[in-house]
Amino acid sequence: MKNVVSISRDDELLEAASRWVLKMDAGELSASDEAALGAWLDESAEHRALLMEVASVWDRADALARLSELFPHRSEHDQVRRGTADRPWAQGLTVAGALAVLVTIGLSLPTFSGHQAPPTTSAEYATAIGEQKTLLLPDSSEVVLNTNSQLAVTFTPEQRLLRLAQGEILVRVAEDHSRPLSVLAGNRIIQAVGTEFVVAMTDGHRVELMVTEGKVVIGQQPAMLRSPHASDSDGEIDALSSLPLPPLLRKLDDNFVAAGELVSLGSAEPVKKTVSTDEIAVKLSWRDGRLIFRSEPLEQALKEVERYTTVEFVFLDESLKTSALSGRFRIGDVEALLSSLRVNFNIAHEFDGESRVLLSSI
To answer: 125 and 131 in contact (C-beta within 8 Å)?
Structure first.
């Protein structure tokens, strides 16, 4: 059985309540956990009500019993009666629907009514231009999608698969030696059992890999794994979940990338270089909502800015392209950038319609 759902993490309260329900159901609440749960519940009656609803919808008997201990003044009838009808997200929620919600918020799949949840699940993730999204996967791995990214995920009993169709992701892999995590990007496989790295698809579908912690192994995708580029995201997910599993890669002398290394994986041989801690911070500055440039050619810097906005920069003066830009800019704040170019570089600008900025020397 396969579950394919669209991912949404807009409801943070639902995510928090879901985490607590799973913890209680698994009997994992320590004394400090109970204290933290109590503090969260005391923040709002809404928190208490939502926790009851999630436990009721998922039919988590152990969690409901534990909640009854925490709230002896509420009868189980009252807890369930508030139920799903009060919330739009729970309208018509069946056992199958509850499973979809659980996959949607990226939590470990529980059992329902004594039956094990399906061993294979698939989901799609996407960000708009200028948007970023942090996802918690079923194994507690974390993926951060940068602007304008598309990612399909499939978890099987044997492997964890991420297919990056476009954009950039930061992956923090939860350690699991029995089930490696593979990122399929372009014609490459990037595989790890527990580490942290960044994968970006650049122009021309060239793949750039930067490892910030641990080591990853790289390899070539077999032809059967290279699904066609699909504009229909549902088609992309179906293609991924129906593909055979990628091969398990062995670490050799020349096929791994270690922390502090960046490699470009194009059609030719991989080009590897060492990156300093400062360079890594610059490359990941988008995580803090900023872009940092250090003596970057202006043309290249503005191409990076364009990734986060619908604005296109056009050079009327070709000589400006090689000007070296340094500075720290907030993502999406084009006006501040243009003001800096005028003040510091004597570069004038003119808006041509809604999305083009014409740059010229003053």
So the answer is: no
pLDDT higher at 91 or 238: 238
190-199 pLDDT per residue, tens: 999 889 999 9
From 68-72, 123-127, 179-183, 233-237, the region with the lowest mean pLDDT: 233-237
Dihedral, CA of residue 56, residue 105, residue 128 and residue 291, to nearest 10: 130
What is the token pair recorded at 300?
A: 């290249």
pLDDT at position 271, please? Answer: 82
Q: What angle do CA 106, 107, 109 make, to 5 degrees?
A: 120
Please say if the pLDDT value at position 5 is more than 50: no
**Residue among 262, 250, 357, 242 at smallest CA distance from 311:** 357
| Block residue for tokens 């872009």 | 291
Does the pLDDT of residue 162 top 90, yes or no? yes
Q: Tokens 């062995």 label which residue?
A: 250
CB burial string 349-362: b at 16+ within 10 A, e below: beeeeeeebebeee
Structure-token pair, residue 93: 């929620």
Here the contacts of 340-343 (C-beta below 8 Å, separation 24 or greater) are none
What's the pTM value of the predicted model, to 2 decimals?
0.64
Q: What's the whole-number average pLDDT of the chain?
A: 75
Integer Cα distance of 35 and 13 in angstroms? 18
- 45 three-class SS: helix
To 10 degrees, the CA torsion angle through 271, 201, 130, 107?
Answer: -110
Q: For each of the domains in the chain, give its residue range(s) and CATH number, in order of start.
A: 2-104 (no CATH), 120-274 (2.60.120.1440), 289-361 (3.55.50.30)
pLDDT of residue 151: 93
**Other beta carbons within 10 Å of 42:** 10
- Nearest CA to 210 out of 149, 281, 304, 301 is that of 281
Gap between the Cα atoms of 125 and 185, Å rounded: 15
- N-to-C CA span, the chain: 64
134 has which bridge partners?
144
The answer to whether residue 177 scores a pLDDT higher than 80 is: yes
pLDDT grade for 39, boundaries at 50, 70 and 90: confident
Residue 112 DSSP symbol: B
